[in-house]
Automatic annotation (TrEMBL):
Domain Neurotransmitter-gated ion-channel transmembrane: 221-510
Name listed for the protein in its UniProt record: Uncharacterized protein
Stored InterPro entries: Neur_chan_lig-bd, Neur_chan_lig-bd_sf, Neur_channel, Neuro-gated_channel_TM_sf, Neuro_actylchol_rec, Neurotrans-gated_channel_TM, Neurotransmitter_ion_chnl_CS, Nicotinic_acetylcholine_rcpt
Segments for region (Disordered): 340-359, 373-396
MF terms (GO), sorted A to Z: acetylcholine-gated monoatomic cation-selective channel activity; transmembrane signaling receptor activity
A cellular component annotation (GO) from this entry: postsynaptic membrane
Family listed: Belongs to the ligand-gated ion channel (TC 1.A.9) family.
Source species of the chain: Knipowitschia caucasica
Length: 515
């Protein structure tokens, strides 16, 4: 058995040596009168057909027929194909028309496969650099199409015809890229007729379709911008007394400016404005407008007493309709409050008639206090009158006795009785005061004797009127400032909802491009 195995091994080695001997003989026979400088065709008017195929694993496949490199397999012990250096055979001068390589030709000299029927296959490894027009209008959700045009550098269509093996490039060995996703690479044959000559010039164009992977830009540029932009409407929700409304808008604007600079650094210079750039510009414009409107509303909130009253159309539009739409109510006011109460509560300024009535009420209160003090004086006067009355009753008998004495020729009235008779007048005055109507003490013109010791009521009435007018002016000024503050509060709430809707719509539109 060992002898048989050794015999088979020796026979196989002899066959391989014989096959190698035939290959060398074939090479000498094929290239004895062969030149690689001329097209391998028997008829110069005949076009040589070259089949081109591109693989995205850096390989350009070309297949053509060489009529001078054929042999019979039987003459060379059944040898069907051989591999030989590409420099020995004629090769088609197919190049990349839109190449951006410095050396223009970066192909490596590799072997070609030659079959007995004259078919040559050249798998050329090549790294090509092509010029490509980049459109960043929809950055970072952009689709790029890079064109690779292959054709003969010196031969026209009558001398060399190009064919496509497949409708698209092979992507089986494609290595995925972290930034770009390859959607496809369709191929198309073009025949161009130039004005200089009538000969056609065929070429094969491969269109590389690329889609940018936008996850990096969404999480690092878009989402932070969206979250910052949602802070801009909240500036309208801040109380005007906080003093941070304008500062918030300026801070948001500065943050968006920083992100705008990052976007400018991450994209190539281009004439067209990218989509994310438009989004940033729109957001910055919105923040600028919100800051300007905030300054305007702050001016309304801090209106002083010298400001004009709220116009009627503003009162109706803002304080009666817009506040209900924006759900803005005063303290103690609800959404179910009747319209007449809401309208009445809106008009906080007092009329002249109400002001006069209020002043009269104040004056009556002061005069009542005066009358109470005057009443105490009248009581003391009444007590004195009662004492005088009792003294008079006691002396009445003396008077009658004196009269009888006068009638009978007696002595005259004593001198002490004349003093008592003089005090009678004050008693009569008090009686008249009791009988006088109460209005005599309110008119300010005829004062009763009981309050003659007080200051003149006319001067007191003027002082009270001055105080009441001052209070009324303060109330009207406060009501005026309150109205303007209510207008500013309603505008704040309305603009907040408006800008929230604008930010939401812009965010939906920008994210909708990524789907």
């Amino acid at each position: 058995m060992r002898c048989v195995g050794l015999l088979l091994l020796v026979s196989f080695s002899v066959c391989l040596a014989a096959r190698g001997h035939y290959a060398q003989q074939l090479f000498r026979d094929l290239f004895v009168n062969y030149t690689s400088a001329l097209r391998p065709v028997e008829n110069t008017e005949q076009a040589i057909n070259v089949t081109l195929q591109v693989t995205l694993s850096q390989i350009i496949d070309m297949v053509w027929m060489d009529s001078f490199l054929t042999w019979s397999k039987d003459d060379y012990d059944g040898l069907e194909s051989i591999r030989l250096p590409s420099r020995y055979v004629w090769k088609p001068d197919i190049v990349l028309y839109n190449s951006a390589d410095d050396e223009f030709s970066s192909s490596i000299e590799t072997n070609v496969a030659l079959r007995s029927d004259g078919q040559l296959t050249w798998d050329q490894p090549s790294i090509t650099k092509s010029s490509c027009s980049v459109d960043v209008a929809f950055f970072p959700f952009d689709l790029q199409q890079c064109v690779l045009t292959f054709g003969s550098w010196t031969h026209n269509g009558n001398q060399m015809d190009l064919n496509i093996e497949l409708d698209s490039a092979e992507m089986a060995d494609l290595v995925p890229n972290v930034e770009w996703q390859v959607l496809g690479m369709p191929a198309k044959k073009n025949v161009i007729l130039y004005g200089c000559c009538s000969d056609p010039y065929p070429d094969i164009t491969f269109t590389l379709q690329l889609k940018r992977r936008a996850s990096f830009y969404i999480f690092n540029l878009l989402l932070p911008c969206m979250m910052i932009s949602f802070l801009a409407p909240l500036g309208f929700y801040l109380p005007a007394e906080s003093g941070e409304k304008v500062s918030l808008g300026v801070t948001v604007l500065l943050a968006l400016t920083v992100f705008q600079l990052l976007v400018a650094e991450s994209m190539p210079p281009s004439e067209s404005v990218p989509l994310i750039g438009k989004y940033y510009i729109a957001t910055m414009t919105m923040v600028t407008a919100s800051t300007a409107l905030t300054i305007f509303i702050m001016n309304l909130h801090h209106c002083g007493p010298e400001a004009r009253p709220v116009p009627g159309w503003v009162r109706v539009l803002v304080l009666q309709y817009l506040n209900r739409v924006c759900l803005v109510y005063d303290l103690g006011e609800t959404c179910a409050q009747p319209e007449d109460q809401a309208a009445g509560g809106a008009n906080t300024s007092l009329s002249d008639e109400e002001s006069s009535k209020h002043s009269d009420e104040v004056l009556l209160t002061v005069e009542s206090a005066i009358l109470q003090n005057g009443g105490r004086s009248r009581e003391r006067a009444q007590e004195e009158a009662n004492e005088d009355q009792s003294s008079e009753n006691k002396m009445s008998g003396v008077e009658m006795h004196g009269e009888e004495r006068l009638q009978n020729g007696g002595s005259s009235v004593p001198s002490g009785v004349e003093g008592l008779s003089g005090r009678r007048k004050s008693v009569d005055c008090v009686d008249k005061q009791k009988e006088a109507p109460a209005s005599c003490c309110h008119c300010g013109r005829h004062l009763c004797p009981g309050i003659r010791g007080y200051a003149p009521l006319d001067r007191l009435r003027g002082d009270v009127s001055s105080i009441a007018d001052t209070f009324q002016e303060q109330r009207e000024a406060q009501a005026l400032m309150t109205d303007w503050r209510r207008v500013g509060r309603v505008l704040d709430r309305g603009l907040m909802w408006l800008f929230f809707i604008m930010v939401f719509i812009m965010s939906v539109l920008i994210l909708g491009k990524s789907i």
